[in-house]
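Justification of resources, computational component.

The compute hours requested in this renewal are based largely on the per-chain cost of generating structure records like the one below. Each record pairs the submitted sequence with a full structure-token output. That output is archived, and it is also reused by downstream analysis tasks.
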Amino acid sequence: MTGLLASICSVEEADIALHSYVDIIDCKDPTRGALGALDLDLIASIVDFVNGERPVSATIGDLPADPKRIRHAVRNTADCGVDYIKLGLFEETTAAPCIMALKEECKHNQLIAVCFADLFDPMPLLPLLSTQGFHGIMIDTAEKKSGRLTELWSLTHLARFIDQAQLLGLVCGLAGRLTLDAIPSLLPLQADYLGFRSALCVSDRTSQLDHRAVMRARNAMPFGFDVPSINTAFVAVH
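The structure output for this chain reads:
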């Protein structure tokens, strides 16, 4: 079953996501880059607010491939109480050494490697991510003006990537300026979750989360848990 991940940047937006029944509440600052990190105090406040009602993930920022710096960021973010920690692999040449340097962190944290369809194809990294103990992988876009994920990769390629990742025991998520209109074509691929930010906002990805947009996404996707009856005014995706 494919879950719904909503990226949020405040306690107020976490409240919207929580009461729109998203499956994963993802802490990220869209003003600081592709994987902009929120301040640690704010992440901790969001975790406290959610209070275990949903899993919470958080990004560690657009960091260079410096294992020592990444390990430090992972540990600080883990101390905030999040369930999943997302870190970016921005360069093909440094990705494998960085993955290998984080094996110890994988023993204590559920790490999600985020790779970018507009930078390189991470398919060859999947076996290494699995053997090193990563929890999962997410495909995103680094430069939001470079195109949507569905424009950069074909559905056939996405399906092959998801299948390979899941065969290796990795949770696999898709993001990258996904639109609500794309949900029906993406659901048959059976990714573990679809991640949204821009499509859930009032205008661009740095604006406020829009409850109605989140509910349209929610109602276009299967539910992973029991929820109260939802207002049918939000059912239509289009």
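The chain has ten helices and eight strands. The radius of gyration is 17 Å.
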